[in-house]
Design brief:
Layout (H helix, E strand, L loop, with lengths): L9 E10 L2 E11 L4 E5 L6 H9 L6 E6 L2 E3 L4 H7 L1 E4 L11 H5 L6 E2 L2 E2 L1 H15 L15 H12 L6 E5 L7 H16 L3 E5 L3 H7 L2 E6 L2 E7 L5 H9 L17
Parallel strand pairs: 3-10, 3-11, 6-9, 9-10
Antiparallel strand pairs: 1-2, 1-4, 4-5, 7-8, 11-12
Protein name: ATP-binding cassette domain-containing protein
Pfam families: ABC_tran (PF00005)
GO molecular function: ATP binding
């Protein structure tokens, strides 16, 4: 019996986005599968951040199809993305530096008991979640501003996981981190993949991409310019696609033929 491949958790087919007279995304294709990390690459202005905003519901696509587990869906608001199981951590992290770790995780979704904040339950859930991810956030009740950059990134990722998403979008998660902290975040993303999440990371760091990602999708001037199996493609091939030294605009992600 021929095994039918599972559909991707999230797929974009021919997605277009325009701001005024400028078409920022043109016929973009992308697939994100469970238990795999996809790196979204491209030069500044390639459309990466706009694509993440489309997926997360910040700015809806004007044309094209978005599929969730093989069925067409509509993402017009961040609420729509969250309901599907899509969480996003932006580069600025959007943390409140004067609040502690617990307060940041539950900001806007506080747990109440008999009309009062249930601080003990929120702290317990925070501790459980962070222990599953990492043990490197020393003080749950100290202000987030006192944490290292890597620890703040961990808190932001932990907050995004409270809703138990199935797809996680990370915008430059290691951009402001040192060598050791970068390693910790890459290990964290690796554990999320092992838990079956589909992860999309925007990155300019080819070292991170080669160390972590399973697949790479390249955007150039708002269009697809290559899909790569990171384990077999050379760094030079991927960089050539990013810079435009090679022009390749496939209509569908090439890795679908290998079961992706």
């Amino acid at each position: 019996m021929v095994r039918v491949p599972e559909p991707p958790l999230l797929a974009l087919r021919g997605v277009c986005k325009r701001y005024g007279a400028v078409e920022v995304l043109t016929d973009v294709e992308l697939e994100i599968h469970a238990g795999q990390v996809v790196a979204l690459l491209g030069d500044n202005g390639a459309g990466k951040s706009t694509l993440v905003k489309v997926i997360s519901g910040v700015t809806p696509a004007e044309r094209g199809v978005i599929e969730w587990e093989g069925r067409q869906v509509h993402i017009r608001r961040p609420h729509d993305a969250r309901d599907l199981g899509i969480a996003t951590v932006y580069q600025d992290l959007a943390l409140c530096g004067n609040l502690d770790v617990v307060g940041n995780l539950f900001l806007g979704r506080e747990i109440r008991r008999y009309g009062f904040l249930d601080e003990m339950e929120m702290e317990r859930r925070t501790q459980d979640l962070l222990e599953r991810l990492t043990r490197r956030v020393p003080d749950l009740r100290g202000p987030v501003a006192s944490l290292s950059s890597g620890q703040r990134q961990t808190v932001a990722i932990a907050r995004s996981l409270l809703g138990e998403p199935r797809v996680l979008l990370l915008d430059e998660p290691t951009a402001a981190l040192g060598f050791e902290q970068t390693g910790e975040i890459l290990d964290l993303i690796d554990r999320l993949r092992d838990r079956g999440l589909g992860v999309l990371i925007i990155s300019h760091n080819m070292g991170d991409v080669k160390a972590l990602a399973d697949r790479a999708a390249v955007l150039r001037l708002g269009r697809n310019n290559g899909f790569f199996d990171v384990n077999t493609a050379s760094q030079e091939q991927i960089i050539s696609s990013v810079t435009g030294a090679t022009e390749n605009v496939p209509r569908r992600p090439a890795f679908r033929e290998s079961g992706w």
